[in-house]
Amino acid sequence: MSLSDLHADMTEPRRAPRTIPDRLTSPLRRNLLGWESLLLIVGIAIFILNAFASPYFLSAWSLSDATFNFTEKAMIAFAMALLIVAGEIDLSVASIIALASTAMGAAATAGAGTPVLVLIGLGTGLLCGAFNGTLVTRLGLPSIVVTIGTMSLFRGISYIVLGDGAYRGYPTSFQWFGQGYVFWVISFEFVLFAVLAVIFGLLLHKTNFGRAVYAVGNNPTAALFSGIRVARVKMTLFLLTGLMSGVAAICLTARLGSTRPSIALGMELEVVTMVVLGGVSILGGAGSIPGVVIAAFVLGLVTFGLGLLNVPGIVMSIFTGALLIGVIALPRLIAKWRR
Amino acid sequence: MTLRTIPREVILGLVIIALCGVIAARFPNFVRPSNLLSVATDTAPLIMLALGQFAVIVTRCIDLSVAANLALTGMICALLNVAMPGFPMGLMLPLALVVGAGLGAINGVLVWKVGIPPIVVTLGTMTVFRGIIFLLSGGSWVNAHEMSASFTQFPRIPVLGIELLAWIAVIAVLGVYLLVTRTALGRAFYAVGGNPHAAVYTGIDVGRTQFLAFVLSGALAGMTGYLWVARYAVAYVEIANGFELDVVAACVIGGVAIAGGAGSVGGVVLGALFLGVIKNALPVVNISPFWQLAISGTAIIIAVALNARSNRPKGRIILKKAEHSHEPV
């Protein structure tokens, strides 16, 4: 039972049986002509509007600061994109950040050095991913409910450990992961984001594993009969999502320099928004990493541009929510009018 | 009679009684009727929202915007009360109901007419609703002293010794029970969730049925919004933040199948009461309230594992899936 099953039949009675898209054209090229180009136009429009709206926007340091709005979320979004393409979802990512950050905070308080902290962050992420993956693949539970449960559980453990307290006192060398610059205005986080984008892009679009992810998302039964170990693919994706949440936890903790149990609260929804805005079908089976990359930039630009105009964060969420619904509704409405 | 053949409602009821028994062994005051009544009254908002969510999930959708809807409608009522203290209280509840239903209808139309997956729609409207609250209130709180006494006292009016809030929840439970068991629309909810294809062939408009489920969920959330704001005598942007997950949890614990088509009103009420008892018991047994999140998370995981383990369909499945069900691989 997966997210795709949950929605697969939703609108079907009114259209033809589910079409399996044939992959004669490369998914990259096909997508670039459709969703990604629409998104890119939106992104460029927002960029130009921002440049006109605020004189501070077009400076190298401003733009560099703007990248922090999306780098951590995008790292998780890459893994989440693969997971959603495979027909599952992980709503516990923000809670994994909280738990990993708490674990690192406890270790740092006990005097652990930077390499150990990084290992603990990544390890916690992997463990949480393994827990989600085991429940979904071994027990066959729907991932949306499992991860709503673990979302409470993981953050709940952080609350038990920390209560209303906080961990501070991370080593100075650790803070480089969130505050360091590799070259001039290019931050470490941005470099990591770019490298991960390439790795995940290659993984999804150029490897057998990537093909298997699409196959599992389109039709798990057919994928199984064509020799794909469906459970193993899904387990790997949950592990990857957990690992990326651990990576994001390291960056975010290093950037903030402190850990509270409410760290990254609600980030899972922003990650899912980014993935869906990037053209990944929430029903599974379709989507691309370039789309997610553009969506990351679009969301980052919207947030940053509105921030420069002194629009409060909560009002920005109106734009984010409207953008999410609008960008998905538009092609559907156009298709409706054409018919 | 094996464990699997016992209805979920009975198991859940026994678990809740056992839980109360364990607590009562150390803290007898917890099971005093007056305390149990206050636990039930505290849980009333969760029950009402879970009823709406139940209808939505049964039709194979999900409504993540219920808590934001509650907060927005609550804020609208509070601002109306501040602007027009003379607004008759008898009209406030229907007004909240209509506002909430309208917000739910937005979700419903986007799912029905535009065909966007419900999880995406309600994720979007959830953030939009929260943002609108900020725009309306300017980010400031509406505090108790700004509200009129009749506004804040309304949910606390005692009727036969029980707060009006609890009575409204009882009426909502009965209303939804009658709706899903005694009306064509209720049957349609189950039919759409059980098998949308077959539902179409029996003449049910799938999209319209889902739309109506969203309207019901919105109406209950809106009504609860006013009661919530009045009871706690404060309205601000973040009230009931994250409450939508408790609501989904209550449904899952109550045995509502997340894939639609199965579940019962009784299960949902007991699922909500289970969470309510835990929430109210923690301070009594001297466990830090910080444990609550982890406990309800564990409860959700156990409940969904139990849901999946029993092969027997939960609740009533009217139209069985003709095609083979998807085996977990």
From TrEMBL, chain B:
GO CC list: plasma membrane
Keyword Secreted in annotation: no
Keywords of this entry: Cell membrane, Membrane, Transmembrane, Transmembrane helix
InterPro entries assigned: ABC_transp_permease (IPR001851)
Annotated transmembrane regions: 6-24, 36-58, 64-84, 91-110, 116-136, 157-180, 211-233, 245-278, 290-308
Keyword Transmembrane among record annotations: yes
Annotated compartments: Cell membrane
Pfam families: BPD_transp_2
Membrane topology: Multi-pass membrane protein
CDD domains found in the cross-reference section: TM_PBP1_transp_AraH_like
One of the record's GO molecular function terms: transmembrane transporter activity
Principal subcellular localisation of the protein: membrane
Record's protein name: Branched-chain amino acid ABC transporter permease
Organism: Thioclava dalianensis
